[in-house]
Specification:
Length: 65
């Protein structure tokens, strides 16, 4: 999951948590929003850690070598 997907999940989760007032029987839309925000935040942290692992000359580290 990249940085863009993570930010997208956080945005969708925030919309579901704070902007949607509709109700669905048997499903908590607010809980789904919180789950999306948490998953997006974890993905964002993982993506930032992965992209920060670069060599001093700016080339990415090849994890398969």
């Amino acid at each position: 999951m990249g940085i863009g997907v993570s930010i997208f999940l956080i945005a969708i989760g925030a919309i579901l948590l704070w902007a949607v007032t509709a109700t669905v029987a048997g499903v908590s839309i607010n809980t789904i929003g919180v789950i999306l925000i948490v998953v997006g935040a974890i993905g964002l942290i993982a993506a930032l850690i992965a992209t920060s692992r670069a060599r001093p000359d700016g080339r990415p580290v090849d994890p398969y070598v």
